[in-house]
Amino acid sequence: MDFRYTPEQEALRKEFDDFFREEMKSAPPEFDASMEALFEFDHCWEFHKQLGRKLAARGWIAMAWPKEYGGRDAPLIEQFIFNEVRGYHRAQGLDPIGASMLAPTLIATANEEQKKEHLPPLARAERDWCQLWSEPNAGSDLACLTTRAVRNGDDYIVNGQKIWTTGAHRADWGMMVARTNPEEKRSRGISFFLVDMKTPGITISPLYSMGGGHMFNEVFLDDVRVPVRNRVGEENEGWIASQMTSNFERSMIDLFSKARRDLEDLVQFCKETKAGGEPLAKNPLIRNKLAQLEIEVEAGLAFSHSVVWNQITGGLMTAAPLAAGAKFLVTEFTQRLAYTACDIMGLYGQVETSKWAPFYGKYVNYYQVVMGLNMGGGTSEIMRNLVCTMALGLPRSW
Ligand SMILES: Cc1cc2nc3c(=O)[nH]c(=O)nc-3n(C[C@H](O)[C@H](O)[C@H](O)COP(=O)(O)OP(=O)(O)OC[C@H]3O[C@@H](n4cnc5c(N)ncnc54)[C@H](O)[C@@H]3O)c2cc1C
User: Fold this and answer.
1) pLDDT at 297
2) Over the stretch 270-301, which tens digit does the pLDDT of each residue have?
3) What confidence tens digit (pLDDT) does each residue in 23-74 have?
4) pTM score
5) Where exactly are the structural domains of the chain?
6) Per-residue DSSP letter, 138
7) Between 312 and 300, where is the model more confident?
8) For residue 142, how far is its CA from the centre of ligand 1 (angstroms)?
9) CATH assignment of 130-236, given 2.30.29.30, 2.40.110.10, 3.40.1380.10, 3.40.50.620?
10) Does residue 140's CB lie within 6 angstroms of at least one atom of ligand 1?
11) 378 CA: nearest ligand 1 atom
C-alpha cells in the first residue's frame, strides 16, 4: 500500500486544515473535551451547528455520496482525509449518527423516496439523528430486543423502551430497530424504521453519566405511530441494514487523529512544566510513557490508513474485520492516553476550574468519558470476537 497522498489530495488536505484551524479559534473550550459537552451545553451545540452549516456550504459533509442526494461523488479517500483533518482539530460539525452511519446505509438499502427525503437535509446539516438500538436487555446481543412494531393500516404502532440513546434530546429523527414478528427467532423478525422524534408517544428522559454530563437518554415509546413508508427495506428483514450502520463508523481515523493531537499537547506540557526544578520531559519514567504512547498512536494511524485502503480496494465487507480491530485499538489507546495524562499531571489533573488546572480542566471529564468509548458502537470483546471469526476463521463461541 502507498501511504503518500497525491499532490491533489495534499492540496485538499491543506484546504481542510486551513479551514478548521481558523474556525476552531472560536470554539468553546469545553468543545474539545468530549462528545458529552457537545450534547450537553447549548453553546457547544450551537457552535457545532454553525460549523455544520459552513461545512455543508462547502459540500464537505457528504463528499462521497452521489450527487443526486446532495453529495459530490468524491472518492472515499477524500472523505477519509477530511475526517483525518477534522479529528486533528477536534472539530465536529457533522452529525456523527446521521451523516456517518445512517446516510451510507440509506444509500445502500433505502428506496428512492426515502433517499430523497432524508439525504439532502443531512448534507445541508439541517437534520440531526439518534440511534434507537440498545434496550435494557439488549446491547451486545441486540437480536434480543423486545420493542414491538405492530402493523395497523398505513402505520406501525410501536411500544417499547430504548436506552443509552446518545443525543436523543437534540435529535430531529431516530433510526430504530423493532420486532415486527415475535414468532421469528432473534435477528429474523426485526425491521428497520425512521422515526420522527416529535411523534406523539415518544418520551425522552435524561441519563446522566458519572461525570454529571447529559449525553445519554432513555427513550420510551408508547403507541407511537410510524408510517409504513418509513420502514427501510422489507418487513422482518431490517437486521442486515442495521448491521451495515456499524460497518461505516469504524475506519476511526478521526479518533486516531484527535489522539495524535492530544499526545502532542501532552508532550508540550511535559516540556514546559517543571517539577523539582526540572522539566517533566527529563523524567525518565515520563519519557518512557510518552515514547510508548507515541509508538502506539503512529501504529494506530497506519492501521487506520490500511482500513480505508482495504475499503477502497476490497469493499466494506473485506475491510470489516480490520475496521473492528481499529475500533478497539483506538478506544483502548484513548483510555491509556487519558489515564497517562492524569497520572503525569498528578493532583493538578483533577482540578477543573482554576489557574492551576492544566488544559483548562478537561482531563477531569475526559478521564471519566473515555471509559464508555470501548462500549459505544460495540464493546471491545465483541470487536475481538469479530476479528476471531471474520479474519482468523475461528468458530463462533456464542
Ligand atoms: C458512549 C456510548 C454511546 C452509546 N450510544 C448509543 C446510542 O446512541 N444508541 C444505542 O442504541 N446504544 C448506544 N450505546 C449502547 C451500546 O451500544 C451498548 O452499551 C453496547 O452495545 C453494550 O451493550 P450493554 O451495555 O447492554 O452491555 P452487555 O451487552 O450486557 O455486555 C456486558 C459485558 O459483557 C461482554 N459481552 C457481551 N457479550 C459477549 C460475547 N458474546 N463475548 C464476549 N463478551 C461479551 C461485553 O463486552 C461487556 O463487557 C452507547 C454506549 C456508550 C457507552
Assistant:
1) 98
2) 999 999 999 999 999 999 999 999 999 999 99
3) 999 999 888 756 788 999 999 999 999 999 999 999 999 999 999 999 999 9
4) 0.95
5) 7-94, 130-236, 250-391
6) B
7) 300
8) 9
9) 2.40.110.10
10) yes
11) 21
CATH architecture entry for 250-391: Up-down Bundle (1.20)
Average of per-residue pLDDT values in the chain = 93
The three cell numbers of residue 296 are: 502506539
Of 66, 98, 59, 100, nearest to 80 by C-alpha is 100
CA of residue 80 to ligand 1 center, whole Å: 26
The pLDDT, as a whole number, for residue 161 is: 98
Expressed in angstroms and rounded, the spacing between residue 300 Cα and the centre of ligand 1 is 23
Residue 305 has pLDDT above 80, yes or no: yes
Residue 97: DSSP 8-state: T
Helices (H) and strands (E) in the chain, counts: 12, 10
For 94, the grid coordinates are 457533522
Interatomic CA distance for residues 242 and 164, integer angstroms:
17
- Give the C-alpha separation, 353 to 376, whole Å: 29
